């Protein structure tokens, strides 16, 4: 799940959120226009480097933007995401909070801070931040914010509230595979295996390479006594993600319960 969370964080970064306070206007001098272009390009290059996983280069790319405008909330959002990618959660939190201080209504900063807290299993803090993001009816990642709220409440043992948030997320985006996978885990935890199987299948149908959903499906099939389907799911995980923790655990199942399959 943590890998998927990181992908979700990257997906919400957008240069359309903020424009420089130095934005060129009609009649602006060439120098102002050049600074505005440099500022925009700096952020764009940083985001491109983040998406390639080159976080050190992203820091270098972002330096001009931060130098030109130290009061742009998106600069610090991007910087927080960079440090999250570098696994420096302390600095990531610092820059997300700096972004929010500059604009307390900056939904994407609240969402990304929620993701960080969820990663660290600081569930109460995650609920606080994602509640802000989920309350923005115009936010394009609202379904993800609602799903993250469900995860946080599920971890706290509040299954009913978690289910409510998953249902709200699916009302917004019925095909959202992330929510279907998490809802499947909830159903598994309360003994509703058939419902869980349907949710994991929904997730896989929307994203056939969703290794975690294949693994979760395998576990439920095994719990149901359907070794054939379980072993098929575990083999699929190994095929998709052999070196991950899911792949290692799937291999253990293959070497124990699936040897005769």
Taking pLDDT < 50 over at least 5 consecutive residues as the criterion, the unreliable ranges are: 1-26
Supply the helix-strand structural class: mainly alpha
Count of DSSP H/I helices: 14
Proportion of helical residues: over 70%
Please state the overall shape, judged from the principal axes of the Cα atoms. elongated
- β-strand number: 0
Question: Tell me about the biggest sheet?
Answer: none
| Mean of pLDDT | 90
Strand/helix succession: HHHHHHHHHHHHHH
How far apart the termini lie comes to 28 Å
What percent strand? under 5%
Return Rg in Å: 21 Å
Which helices and strands appear, and what pairs or packs with what?
Elements lengths: L1 H10 L18 H22 L3 H14 L4 H13 L3 H14 L4 H13 L3 H12 L7 H14 L3 H14 L4 H13 L3 H14 L4 H14 L2 H14 L4 H12 L5
Helix pairs in contact: 1-6, 2-3, 2-4, 3-4, 4-5, 4-6, 5-6, 6-7, 6-8, 7-8, 8-9, 8-10, 9-10, 10-11, 10-12, 11-12, 12-13, 13-14
Quick description:
The protein contains 14 helices and no strands.
Question: How would you describe the overall organization of this protein?
Answer:
- With 261 residues, this protein is mostly helical.
- It has helices spanning 2-11, 30-51, 55-68, 73-85, 89-102, 107-119, 123-134, 142-155, 159-172, 177-189, 193-206, 211-224, 227-240, 245-256.
- α12 runs antiparallel to α13.
- The chain is elongated and about 75 Å long.
- Residues 1-26 have low confidence and may be disordered.
